[in-house]
Specification:
alpha+beta
Length: 294
């Protein structure tokens, strides 16, 4: 947890330094108008998008493979209930403490950034995890492709309709409800939202049920799509032990490699001599050339 908190602090320090160095990150594009953000917030927005492009969010930001992706910045703040506190207690957070004030100031910046990045195509969300840990609340940043989420809610209506979700459901409502659901419904929902194929989602849920009933871990293999920072460990799903990839797996892999190749060819055109990427402009220019804007 300490490592995650230090990672967050480092991000804000780097963003602050970037803003003072005047990196000339684009604030107005055909996809986004971020002119209401401060220099620091604009740098944070660009850093978040750049990180996402280097990781599995590439397949949401520049592709349709993943209706939703974690942006890779798990945030942790000392604002949750301490162990002695009870359900329903009203005085949970010490608003006078320096750590609380720092946390709320940072969360205000994050909410500004994510609100400005959200538009008709993308929806960015800061969602708290259901369970706290030793007085710390962990949160995740998620990006949703609105059109792909609508398709998913329609295609998997036999599952998602039990919560009253229709194709035009608000993404924040869907994500929050699923995070706070019971274990296996949560697993199935996240499997679909993260773009895993039906057979992989079924295996993971069935393995979870089996482990609960028997107390024995179900051994498994993993199928991974490459991202810019590595070939495994990011866009990855579990499969039965000894499983051989089928046509669906191969199609996902080939589509991912094609998108990764496109990104790697585009990246140098949007990078300054120090390697800083204008991710805001890269993503906007990419989608301007697709049918989304035609």
């Amino acid at each position: 947890m300490k490592k995650l908190y230090l990672q967050l602090c480092l991000l804000f320090v780097l963003a602050s330094c970037a803003s003072t160095n005047n990196l000339n990150i684009t604030s107005k594009t055909s996809l986004w108008n971020l002119s209401e953000l401060s220099e620091t917030e604009l740098a944070i927005a660009n850093e978040l998008l750049a990180y996402g492009l280097e990781h599995e969010a590439l397949y949401t930001l520049l592709d349709t493979l993943k209706p939703m992706t974690s942006m890779g910045f798990p945030l942790s703040y000392p604002i949750a209930k301490a162990g002695e506190m009870k359900d329903g207690d009203k005085n949970v957070v010490d608003l006078r403490s320096d750590s609380t004030q720092m946390a709320l100031a940072e969360l205000t910046k994050w909410n500004n950034v994510l609100e400005s990045l959200s538009n008709e195509e993308f929806s960015f969300h800061l969602i708290p995890y259901r369970f706290a840990y030793q007085g710390k609340r962990n949160l995740q940043i998620l990006v949703v492709r609105r059109d792909k989420l609508a398709e998913l809610l329609n295609d998997k209506a036999a599952f998602f309709a039990q919560w009253g979700f229709t194709a035009n459901a608000d993404p924040a409502t869907v994500l929050t409800a699923m995070e706070f659901e019971e274990r296996n419904d949560r697993y199935r929902a996240y499997g679909y939202l993260f773009g895993y194929p039906e057979h992989a989602v079924n295996f993971f849920v069935e393995a979870s049920i089996s482990e609960k009933e028997t107390g024995e871990f179900v051994t498994r293999d993993f199928f991974s799509m490459p991202v810019a920072v590595g070939k495994t460990g990011y866009f990855t799903y579990a499969t039965p032990k000894g499983y051989s990839p089928n046509e669906i797996d191969s199609a996902i892999y080939k589509a991912a490699v094609s998108t990764l190749d496109q990104y790697n060819s585009l990246k140098p055109k949007y990078s300054d001599p120090n390697g800083e990427v204008d991710a805001v402009r890269l993503i906007s220019d990419f989608w301007k050339k697709t049918s989304v804007y035609q």
